[in-house]
Amino acid sequence: MLNNIVKESLHGMADEPHDSRQFYDELISAREHVLKLISRNLTDFGDRFPAETCVNGYYPLTENVEWTTSFWTGQLWLAWEMSGDDRYRAMAERHVRSFGLRIAGRHDTNTHDLGFLYTLSCVAAWRLTGNTEARGFSLLAADALLERFHDKARIIQAWGDLSDPDQAGRMIIDCNMNLPLLYWASEQTGDKRFAEAAYEHARQAARYLVRKDASTYHTYYMDITTGAARYGNTQQGYADDSCWSRGQAWGIYGFTLSYLYTGDRELLELAKRLANYFLNRLPEDGVCHWDLALLGTDALRDSSSASIAVCGLLELCKHLPVTDPERAHYLHAAQHIMSSMTRDYLARLDDPCNGLLKHSVYHLASHKGVDECASWGDYFYVEALVRMLQSWKPYW
User: Fold this and answer.
1) What's the farthest any 2 CA atoms get from each other in the chain?
2) In whole angstroms, what is the distance from residue 330 CA to residue 326 CA?
3) What is the rounded CA–CA span in Å between residue 315 and residue 392?
4) Angle, to 10 degrees, between the axis of helix 179-189 and the axis of helix 245-262?
5) How far apart are the C-alpha atoms of 358 and 94, rounded to whole Å?
6) Which contacts of 230-236 are long-range, i.e. CB under 8 A and separated by 24 or more positions?
7) In this structure, are residues 274 and 257 in contact, taking their beta carbons and an 8 Å threshold?
């Protein structure tokens, strides 16, 4: 059965190109197809991990390094939840041990992306199976993430050595999705420092990363000595004053998750404003250009941003009353984007490709992952599918 929240989005949609039965059949077919793709990769990847993005259609395989390896582990957990096939669980649990070695040795952990890395691997394992080792690894990761919090600036530094003057005080919109690891750590340990740091960062992100028109900077610099705001710019967007699509999607989902843990209604209202800005700048098929400022051009699409946004919109709707006039709009939009991705962006079994969701953009300026599958796009597409087809308790 369709998730109840998605059923709501289909009421009164006779003017849409497909009714609820067609959409349901589309999702069921997509689930079967995605499980085939993941199963094939389960064999082909072995104990290694896909790199951040495909290169000429195929993921290079790596050890457990960089910020994206958990998106493959997350797909395995989701595949297990969708199918009950213990092959997926067995490999995900082998990954848990790999993440344990990584955090114990502090290998490539000098990043705020510890939230991505450990939420989708080890916190997921703890939530789903009660794996106490995975819980311990997650708490070690939360400790390492908390070390990146600057007391004066009240932010978690994104990348690099904390004493690096080129990186000191940099926060980025992506970090909203790393905060759930800290909120979870406070729940587990009773130590309020984790949640307090996460909430302080979320408030600073709301204050400085979000512009008055509800568009977002990719990155913003704070003075770590005085705590003063410095300036915003972009690392991956079109321009410093444009709106990078993936960052806007991280904001929709991430501010909603901070609301979930804190109950701060201002964060929920902020997520709505970001969602409105995002949805008002979509092409006809609902799959955004890689920067929202490029609407009306032939700029490349970024399906990975679209998949994140769908998950964010569905989570947002869980926390809005049915009387909220924008709730139905968000549900309809999520369904429209999902349907478009499923029809026109999902890789076929016979494609020269081993990713799931085609036509993503990682970093255009450096020609990295341009018009390729991206590991996070694959993950969030599968998460959206699970959200729409069954009752699902998020790993976040």
Assistant:
1) 58
2) 6
3) 11
4) 20
5) 28
6) 230/169, 232/208, 235/172, 236/362, 236/363, 236/364, 236/365
7) no
Residue type present at position 319: H
CB of 257 within 8 A of CB of 176?
A: yes
* Cα dist from 147 to 41, 72, 167, 203, 343, whole Å: 35, 26, 15, 18, 44
Beta bridge partners of 149: 156
Contact 250, 261 (CB under 8 A): no
One-letter amino acid of 30? A
Beta carbons within 8 Å of 298's beta carbon, 6+ residues apart: none
Residue 227: per-residue pLDDT:
97
Mapped onto helix, strand or coil, the DSSP state of residue 231 is strand
CA 25/CA 366 separation, integer angstroms: 40
Name the token pair of 270.
């902020």
* Side-chain half-sphere CA neighbours of 150 within 13 A: 26
Which residues pair with residue 111 across a beta bridge?
Answer: 159
For the record, the structure tokens of 335 come out as 């369904």
Six token digits for residue 317:
């709707």
Structure-token pair, residue 281: 């700048």
Cα–Cα dist 45/43, whole Å? 6
Closest CA to 119 of 176, 171, 155, 70: 70
Decide: 373 and 356 in contact? Cβ < 8 Å: yes
Judge contact between 226 and 152, C-beta under 8 A: yes
What would the pLDDT profile of 60-119 be if each residue is shown by its tens digit?
Answer: 999 999 999 999 999 999 999 999 999 999 999 999 999 999 999 999 999 999 999 999
3-state secondary structure 140-158: HHHHHHHCCEECCCCEECC
Element (H, E) at 381: helix 375-389
Q: Which tokens belong to 367?
A: 């020609």
Question: Residue holding tokens 């909220």?
Answer: 324
Active site residues: 113, 174
The predicted model scores a pTM of 0.96
